[in-house]
Each structure stands twice: as C-alpha cells, then as structure tokens.
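Narrative progress, year one. The postdoctoral researcher (J.K.) led the effort to move from monomer predictions toward full complexes, under supervision of the PI. The following entry was the first complex the group processed end to end, covering 756 residues in total.
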Amino acid sequence: MDYKAPLETYTGKIKEVVIGRGPKAIKIGGESILPLHYFEGAAARRPVVALEIDDSGAAGWTEWAVEPYQDVVSDPLKWAGKCLELGADLVCLHLESTDPQGANRPAAEAAALVRRLVKEIDAPLIVYGCGDDKKDVEVLVAVAEACRGENLLLGPAVKENYTDIARAVAENGHCIIAQTPIDINLEKELNVKLLKQLPPERIVIDPLSSALGYGMEYSFTIMERTRQVGVVYGDMAMQMPIIADLGRECWKTNQARADREQGMLWESITAMNLLLAGADILVLRHPDNCRLLKEAIEGKL
Amino acid sequence: MAIKGTDIVKRLPEGGKKNCKECGLPTCFAFAMKLASGGSAIEKCPYISPEVRSGLEDALAPPIRPVTIGTGANALVVGDETVLYRHEKTFVHQPGIAVLIADDESVEAVEGKIRKLKELKFGWVGQTLRADLLALQNKSGDPAKFTAIVNKVLPEVDCPLMLISQDTDALLAAHALCAGRKPLLYPVTAQNLEKVISAVKAKAAVLAVKGAGVESLVHLTKRLKEAGLEDILLDPGSRDLQSAVRDQTLIRRAALKQGFRALGYPTIAFPCFMTSDRRRETLLASMFIPKYAAVIVLSDIDEHSLLPLLVQRLNTYTDPRIPMSMEEKIYPINNPDAGSPVLITANWALTYFIVASEVEASKVPAWLCVKEAGGLGVLTAWAAGKFSGDSIAPFIRKCGIEGMVNHRRLVIPGKVARIRNELAEALPDWQIIVGPGDANEIPAYLPALVKSWKG
C-alpha cells in the first residue's frame, strides 16, 4: 500500500465580513479550509489580531499588561494610536466605564467617545459594551447611531438583548458580535435569530473565550466544532467568522498576575490554542504577544 | 478504520460457518464480534491458519500503536489515540515533555536542568503536574563526552531517557549503557537504518525515525517493522509552525482515516530545534499539544513556562464529556480565622477556580466550602438535585466548619437564591445570606458584607 497524502476538500465557506470603511476597512473570514490548513487550499485571508483598549484608563489591568501603554491609558485616542503603532491590525474598545456596577457612564458619553475614536484612528474598530444586558442595549444603540455608516463591529448581543442591538446595527450600517456562553446549541440558535435581522456578512460569532486553566479547552472545542460544522458540513448558520476576546480573561488570572513571563505565556498560549481552533480575530492586551501571534499567522514562526 | 465483526467472520475457518464452539462462544459470528470489540483473543480459535491470524492481528491492532518509553513505574505510554478532534471522543495519552541537555553545556547548567526536572511540580485540581523525560544530546561531536554525560545522568534520574546523536556509533554506544531502561533513540534515518537494526534488540529501545516530509518516513517504518522493531516514533522533519501543523495532521489522518499502518505510530516534536527564543519555543510546544505530538522536546524548563504547558496538556487531554471536579472540603482563602465569612459553592473545577480567584481578589479572608455536586456548576447542580437545601445542610453539619468559625452566617450563590428558605429550615441556627449572582461581583460584595457585620 503506497502513501497517498490524506488531503481533504471542503464544501463550506466562511462568510466575508468587512469591518470599517474606505481605505482602512479590513475583511475577515472568507476561508474554506480548517484553521491553518493552508496546505489544503488558499485562504482568501488570514486571521487578524486586535489589541484591546478601554475607557477606564486600564483600571484593574495587571501591571505587565499596562506597561507598554503607561503614558497613554488615560486617553483612549492616543492609546488606540499606540496599539496600531505596536502592530495591531485593529483596535478593540471595551466600554468598561458604562457598567452600572461601576462608573455607570451614560450611553451618550460613551457614544461620543466612540465617534471621536472612529473619526481619528487609522484602523477599524471593535466596540464591546460592559456586559450588562440592559445597559448594553442603551449604549450600543447610541454608539450605532452616533457612528452611522462607520461599519463598526459592535457587541455583545446576547439572547436576552439582541433584538434592539441588531436593529440599530442594521439601520446604521455596522456588524454585530453574537455572544453565547460556551454552548454550541445556543450559539446556533442566536445566529438563526440574528439572521432574520441581519445578513450573515454582518455577524461575527463570540462563543466566549476562557483563559488557559479556566475553561480554555471548552472554548477551544466549541470553536473547533463551529468551524467544522461551517466548513466541513456546510451549515449556513455557523459560517460566520469567530472572535476570541481572550486577553482580558488571561490577564485577570492569578497565574498572569503572579509573574510577568508567566502572564505573557498565559495570554499567548491561550491565543495560540484559539487560533488553532478557528478564531478569525484574536483580541489581546500585550503588543509582544500581538507580534508573536502575527508571526504564527503569517507562517514566520 | 477499525475492522468490523462482519468482515472478520468471513476470514474464520470455513468462512465463519464452522461454529465448533471451542473458543467458548456459540458461533463463529459471535467470536468475530467479540474480536472486533477487543473482548476476545485470536488464539482462542484453534483452527485459524497462521496467515489469516497474522492478517487479523494486523487489522485488529490499534490504528496508532501504543509505545512505552522507559521501564518501571515512570515509564511513559504514548500513542493509541483514536480521534483527530477531542470532541469526537477524547485524547488519551498525554504527550511527554522532555528537557534537553547537551553534552557541551556547563556542569552548572546540566545540574540546574536535572534539578528542575526533579523538583518542578505543580498541584492543579488535585493532580500533580510535571515534566516526564530527559533528553541527552551529543552536540559536542565528541563520543567520549556523550558517554560521560550519559554515565553521569543515569544514576541521578529515574525518568525515561532520550539519546540524540548524529554520530550513529556514539548513539549506539550510549544506548548500550542504558539498554535496560528502554531509552528513546534519535535520529534513525535512511542512512543509519541498517546499522541501528543490527545493533538494537526489540524492547531495548524506542526508535524515533527522522525523515524529510511525511512520505519519506514510510519505507523507514516498514523496514523496522520487518526487522521486528515496532516501538517507533515519527519525526517528519518539519521545523516551522505551519508545516508542523500540516505534517502532524497528515500523519494522524493517514493512521486513523486511511488505516495506513506505516504511519500508525506516535509522533515526536522538537520546539527546541525550531527557534532559539524561549517564548517562541513555548508557544510552538503549545501548538503541538492539541496537534498530536506524543513527545515534545524543550531546550529548558522554568516554572513560568512549564506550568502553562502542563495545564494546557491536562486540559486538552481531559474527557470533554466529564466535567473536572474539586474535592469536597473547606478551602481557606486569604488566611481566614474564626470570624471570617463562610461561602458555599458547587464542585465543578471551573466554578471553584472562578469563585476562589474572585474571593482572593477581594482580599477578604474567607472559608470557601466546596460541596460535592457531581462536578457540576451551581445552577446545573441545583437542577440535578445535587445542590439543594436538603443536601447542603448535612454537608455543613459534617464538614467541620461549625467548629472552625464563631458565627453562623452562610453565603450561598445568588444563582440559587430560591433554596434559601429550605436551607434556613434545615439549618435553623444558621443565617442564610444570598450572595451575588455572578462571581465577578464578589470583590465588591465581600468587603461590604464584612463591613456591615462590624458596623
């Protein structure tokens, strides 16, 4: 019996999602192969890496993750610029200060900030609300309206609040992050519901990213299955790109807080795993890890 | 590509219609079904011809051969995997992590690495995590130096060993020093294959073959198998991330989906030879864990680089169908005393980790009681009847917390606020307090709670 390389062909194709507009727009998705299987077919494009910023001056960030941004964290505009300087493909803003349990900043203020950012920075923008179901509706709708036509990637839309957010996203020309709690059935259910309000080219899946040691393998497996269902089995409701918002999860672990190098590895290893599982956008905090993961993506590692 | 019982029966005596019952089963068909499921042995059939027997043995062997490196209690078993993706079933044999020592390193460096290999151990969810093998490399090119380091290390460590030399004579001479410990030899190539075959006896070594590409390994393993040497590991020679993903995937698929015997062996990976940067090396090693390597050789180990890899390995190889659980007991956090608050949660490891790390972040000393709940999270455990007032009350009584604190206030997870009344009835002397619904609220909640008690 002679060896014949067991190459596979795939029938499904991940949707192409465009974030941003004009010359600074980025396309993600579009691949019809399993993650990093470039030996089985060319990918229209490769995964991208975003660096995270927030509107609370990096409150609660581990010191090693703040260091590279020390002088700019109080100004999201400068901070975003620094992220791009340091190699990020795009910027991911978390609107931490809108949290009703924290600073409870009003939606209008958050929207004004995003509007300023999107006009000034030279890359597409991902915007996450604070994670409070109710407040996120207010904030994300305000952001969507204030940034009409800017094609932001906005979220999280969850099963409790997706209708209003999806409507604002559709009416104002943005893309949505569909977030579910590490459960492939809930994930598909939310996608199916969102597809009634938005085309698949405007949806990005966030199956929740857990840190290494804190459930990463669950995120890994959900992403791996999602990508297989989309590419191998051609399930149209699962063919959206995946975002892995993992940096914040990694840096809040005790292991990352205890030791700088261990923290660097906690984030980069989690990112490597979720890249192998199928993430199209990796959201990280540390620029050195951004560079490393880009090496991996570009075939330089 | 496991062979089916219906295919086996056709190969049995008289086309599976002899039905002599001498194997202990009523029919040849029943025997064939047992063979296919691994429940019987071919020897039980007294009439089977030697050719059919060896053919069936081959067909019934695991698609990826289990290989044991080393001997005794610390021997490492790798291979025998049956799936490409962990969600299909589970990955079973965790890859061995090897630490590389070159024979041109300083005495201090060598001793440092041996010490780290012996001493770096981590407790994680009730398990002890550590590296597994020591790899010795003849980097100096001097066979005498290689022999010297092998002789030095042999009495010092009892873990499985790996020997690496481009000089086959030096490799075989080193092997002769420790053949009784069944070391792993590397590299076996097209150039030294016959020399290795004539010098190494079966069961005295595991042979790691090196090729240039997946296909080049095929004739090497076929020849070794012919010579009766089947304890083999595969190195397709890829030395960058994406080629490695490709080769590891092709080998695993060939073995599992094509039933291609010549590639049905575990693989070995060398992050240590892929980069000179330690962080990149660790990241490459982390890729090889889900991407099928059975032995991963590192240039060095440190606490900060080894712990994440070992945790990743443990997580990747846990059965995705069984939740990880914590032992039922009281976990002290931030050095609590008799006046510290008492919290209770369910024993899914992730629940514990998240709650414990938030309590720790609150800086409030506290007692975290973890109740056995089938390894489920709080809400699922409640739904399954394993985290109800009736079952929590006896746990609180017998776990010993009543003797450890001078108060009777118990904080329950906000997600199961509904059990408050039944728990209060079952524990009339305790005040039941409903805590936050989400663990991330604990750092704000606990200090306020303690303050309210004092105030």
